[in-house]
Design a protein that fits this description.
about 110 residues; 1 helix; five-stranded antiparallel beta sheet; three-stranded antiparallel beta sheet; mainly beta; 8 strands
Length: about 110
């Protein structure tokens, strides 16, 4: 099976049509990459798959379950499936890639 080159830029993500709160920019197998840039408040709910955030720009606070910590551009955060999480007190320029993969309920060790 030939390898398919997949590429997305921040500009592509920012201009892609939103499906709900984020814009889907890449899809391959079970993996989905979305561009997420909330304005004012993060209203997302827990997801049914594991996810990874890669912060593109901005800074603020991230709540992951019971843990709250600061984040800034370049940071990577893992969130297990079905975990309450959200971005709080974030800057106006905040944007992140969101990567979902695996089965519903998340991968188990």
């Amino acid at each position: 099976m030939p390898h398919e080159h997949i590429h997305a830029t921040v500009e592509h993500g920012a201009s892609a049509p939103k499906l709900g709160l984020a814009a889907l920019v890449l899809h391959h197998g079970s993996m989905e990459v979305e561009y997420y840039a909330p304005h004012g408040r993060d209203t997302q709910l827990p997801h049914d798959r594991d996810e990874l955030y890669v912060v593109i720009s901005g800074h603020g606070w991230f709540r992951n379950g019971q843990v709250r910590h600061e984040f800034s551009a370049g940071d990577v955060m893992f969130v297990p499936a079905k975990t309450e999480h959200r971005f709080e007190q974030f800057s106006e320029d905040f944007a992140t890639w969101v990567i979902f993969w695996g089965p519903k309920g998340g991968e188990h060790e």
